[in-house]
UniProtKB/TrEMBL annotation:
Phylogenetic classification of the source organism: Bacteria, Bacillati, Actinomycetota, Actinomycetes, Pseudonocardiales
Top EC category: oxidoreductase
GO terms classed as biological process: cellular response to nitrosative stress; nitric oxide catabolic process
Domain annotation FAD-binding FR-type: ranges: 141-241
Pfam families: Globin, NAD_binding_1
Recorded catalytic activity of this chain's protein: 2 nitric oxide + NADPH + 2 O2 = 2 nitrate + NADP(+) + H(+); 2 nitric oxide + NADH + 2 O2 = 2 nitrate + NAD(+) + H(+)
Protein name, entry field: nitric oxide dioxygenase
Organism: Lentzea guizhouensis
Alphabetized GO MF terms: FAD binding; heme binding; metal ion binding; nitric oxide dioxygenase NAD(P)H activity; oxygen binding; oxygen carrier activity
Domain of life of the native organism: Bacteria
SUPFAM superfamilies: Ferredoxin reductase-like, C-terminal NADP-linked domain, Globin-like, Riboflavin synthase domain-like
Known EC number: 1.14.12.17
Family: Belongs to the globin family.
InterPro entries assigned: FAD-bd_FR_type, FNR_nucleotide-bd, Globin, Globin-like_sf, Globin/Proto, OxRdtase_FAD/NAD-bd, Riboflavin_synthase-like_b-brl
Location of the Globin domain: 1-137
Amino acid sequence: MLSEKSAELVEATLPAVGAAIGEISELFYQRMFAEHPILLRIMFNRGNQANGTQAQALAGSVAAFASGLLAGQRPDAMLRRIAHKHVSVGVTSGQYAVVHKHLLGAVAEVLDVSDEVAAAWSEVYWLMADTLIGLERFLPRGQQDHRVIARFQETDDVVTFVVRPVDGPVPASRPGQYVSVQVPLPDGARQIRQYSLSGRTDDALQFSVKRDGEVSNHLHDHAPVGSTLRLSQPLGDVTLQPGDGPVLLASAGIGCTPMIAMLAELAATGSPRRTIAVHGDHDQLSHPFRAGLAQLVAKLENAQAHVFYEWPIGEWPAERTGFVDLRGIDVPADTTAYLCGPVPFLRAVRSQLLAAGVTDIHYEVFGPDVVSAG
């Protein structure tokens, strides 16, 4: 809980910090990487640093946590998401002190705040950091070498990898989780990216990769059957939860990967739940797991699939042409909704669900969580 004096100072300065937090977070990363360049090479996503989304997510998470403290409402879902991502890339508790040094240094440099204000925001930071450290303590850590035992071309730009540990058993996983994959790049950097598990296998892990960015391109071009990949333990807090009520699995593009894993679990267990599967893509040829979606839905006694294409090939229903639109689909108010896809898709579908009275909404976002960031 934030002390009374600090709460007053944080509330008074939150508008100024919020207005400048983009500049603060950008300066923070510059300072930290200047002193610790290895972090950018082996832990942080260079692409997200270059396009600014990581800075935006950091800014939003700190502001959201501070606002929550003042309102007496801790943003638990955001904190769980951050904790899982931290563990997946190997963040340690000792590195929070490094972040504190450079983040508070950036605040002081940008806003020229008093020592009292700096101390108040330091208190906010350590409350958030200590919460994350506590959450991360109970998550499975460690990386392990896996052998690629099969790979399948799903579409022109999506490949599915099936991998098995070189030593030891296959780690436990849940539908909706992801693994972090670390690869060596030509410049010597070892970059990490997260990929959702995309199927249900008992003796292996399966994940799918869209060709997009330096790590994904490397996997497409340099990870044949027989090669070795370094994977984290399966992580991620957005997983299929047990229950009897209706479930919505909504995705766009490569966001179908965790949804297809959840759908496979429902089919494998013969779930009687009403299941509404919704997917949006450019066209039939760019839709990964198109046949698998139809097959899994057919196995369930109470399931429907609704597919939207922006530019369908051949004849296609007019009401299913364009972006995903739930307004023409019966989604009961007691539905548990799982979403995955680009940020504009997540925001649009979440708004449609809230308008329909659906409030139990869970989402997975690839990359920094700028949805929680606002």
